[in-house]
Design a protein that fits this description.
By secondary structure, the protein is of the alpha/beta class. The protein has eight helices and 16 strands.
Length: about 260
């Protein structure tokens, strides 16, 4: 096997950053390209289960992430009216890996960027062509430049250009789920340390830091036309009632405001 020296990471999201940190600590200096114009973080929060925290621990980031987020000690299963069905002790389930943590995506990204340190990340850049030449790959970038690499890693998400270039295109098929996620304030502290989920898995909330939590709604829909893509998210009650009439009941049972404060 040829010696690997020139490495390209396509995508500077959570996976790409974590990989870059690990490679740099082992002596490699990978090039990194990212299609976005800068450090943008879509999404409200992320639920890191124990094995994710174990991986962050291998990068020396577990304590910082736990400090910036909120430990999730239990997961409560509710029916469609918010009545408790079961409580899972997530702290003991994941005890051999690490704690479960809810954290804002922006905070997780900031920890990863700081751990990476100074790096020449090429923003607004992606891969437009990829050709193999023996044990190497010729990569043409969207800015017109071209370089040779021993290893090209696609960490550019569900719309991966590397996947398409290496394995051919694949069509995305709507499978009947629509996901909405947002951050909101909890009226009382009883939500701290616990995640709430309905029995069919279409609703979930979990705590973040500083009295906030992330709530997600995944209703089963026949098609995306039922949702206005540019809905007025200043009134989440109205939007969520249109997707499912019972979706707010579990949230109200755990003490959330009827009008959510969005970030």
């Amino acid at each position: 096997m040829s010696k690997i020296e020139r490495i390209l990471i396509v995508g500077a999201g959570m996976a790409g950053l974590a990989l870059a940190i690990s490679l740099r600590r082992q002596g490699w200096s990978p090039d990194i390209v990212e299609r976005q114009q800068g450090w943008t973080v879509p999404g409200a929060g992320i639920y890191l289960v124990g094995n994710a925290m174990r991986a962050l621990g291998s990068l020396g980031l577990a304590d910082e992430v736990l400090r910036e987020g909120s430990a999730i000690r239990t997961q409560t299963i509710l029916d469609d009216r918010g009545r408790q069905l079961a409580v899972i002790d997530t702290a003991s389930v994941w005890a051999k890996c690490g704690p479960c943590v809810g954290i804002r995506r922006a905070e997780l990204q900031k920890s990863l960027v700081n751990a990476l340190g100074p790096a020449d990340i090429q923003f607004s850049t992606t891969v437009s062509a990829l050709d193999t030449h023996g044990a190497a790959a010729a990569v043409q970038f969207s800015n017109g430049t071209e370089r040779m690499y021993d290893l090209v890693i696609g960490a550019d998400g569900v719309r991966s250009s590397i996947r398409t270039l290496a394995f051919g295109g694949c069509s995305r098929v709507f499978v009947g789920k629509w996901v909405g996620a947002f951050s909101c304030s909890a009226r009382r502290r009883s939500v701290d340390g616990r995640s709430l989920q309905d029995i069919v898995g279409s609703f979930c909330s979990y705590p973040l830091a500083k009295g906030r939590l992330t709530a997600t709604r995944m209703p089963q829909l026949p098609n995306l036309s039922m949702i206005h893509r540019k809905a007025d998210w200043s009134d989440c009650d109205h939007v969520l009632r249109r997707t499912h009439p019972l979706c707010l009941r579990p949230w109200r049972s755990c003490g959330l405001r009827s009008r959510f404060t969005l970030e």
